[in-house]
């Protein structure tokens, strides 16, 4: 029998992008997991229930029913580095945070997603373990240009490259000649090239590193704004030269915003994301020796943060993601053996937050004039469009996938180890009081998370840019 979900606050969006709340219901097909009908009056709901005596309404009262959120920047690290993270724990964490789809980055797994064979390996590992839907980025590294087009044909959402060392040997950074070769290959395809936009510090005339590596200021000076500015200028120049969708990941410096605005004004195919840590944390409040705050590019000043919020408001920036990038406690906190605990220059650079993105954003955005519609625009619609999922996800509308986030915006909670679902618990948000609680997460019409608990086993699907794996065939990707 089909499923019915009701609430006094269901967020709908029309074809012109206009949002409105209704007091009504959503009828979902139990066989396809798609939305069959939107019921806008209690009379419609009563008529449906009267004609389907066995049907039960799952009523969420005053909690909001939002489209399931999408995080297009998650490092899952499996296979190869499952002591860092894995498909089961990462997707459980995402589910607990109201996210119904994540997209895995191509590096930190072994092997990286830089060939068709490696993509198949990753999909085979992921398929039986994912609690949310999962898509995949491919990678661009020196010399793998002959692999790019076949990975497009087999469904990667796009490709990521590093313009500076990535931190792992198996995913080397690219040079300008490498980029031009790759962009020649990508022209004419419905795909995207995403850039970790920092150049090497030696090219920027950065300040000499201070002698105390436990001071956050030391790390901040080791990755100056100019590293991003020069890289972003190069990306914008390339986006004008090649007919390729270009995307800048995890923008940190507001000093690059004029460059981005100028490029967008010229009609270039450029999108830009920023991250929850840049919008929540600032360098003035990072304690020395607290390496759980380390990421690349780094967390910058409070004034810089304000400018990022303004760029979200004026739509210079297109989406907000977690850049969930975990590692072991030994690498992140340097707590084992003879490690130099608190050394920002030695610790792993990455912040774990896939579970808390919605609440982090909601806690900070209200005082800046943002609404729940902005949350959906930046944490759902933007990522869906980037990854090519916007025709099946990101809206509550007939024919779309029945992926929902049930959200109570007025409740609060405290981040603690007990509620964290991701594998390694080190996070700069520990102990933070956040606004907005995810009451439930619904995946393809089925309750997958509710009241703090995962419901049942893995229900996620592999998502491909050129479609999705069949619900009926286990091995739907023909390699």
TrEMBL record:
Its EC number is 3.5.2.5. GO terms for molecular function: allantoinase activity; cobalt ion binding; zinc ion binding. It catalyses: (S)-allantoin + H2O = allantoate + H(+). Its cofactor is Zn(2+). PROSITE patterns: DIHYDROOROTASE_1, TATD_1. Pathway: Nitrogen metabolism; (S)-allantoin degradation; allantoate from (S)-allantoin: step 1/1. GO terms for cellular component: cytoplasm. Residues 64-446 form the Amidohydrolase-related domain. Coiled coil: none annotated. It is an enzyme of class 3 (hydrolase). Keywords: Hydrolase, Metal-binding, Zinc. InterPro entries: Allantoinase, Amidohydro-rel, DHOase/Allantoinase_Hydrolase, Dihydroorotase_CS, DNase_TatD-rel_CS, Metal-dep_hydrolase_composite, Metal_Hydrolase. GO terms for biological process: allantoin catabolic process; purine nucleobase catabolic process. Homotetramer. Belongs to the metallo-dependent hydrolases superfamily. Allantoinase family. This is allantoinase. It comes from Culicoides sonorensis (Biting midge).
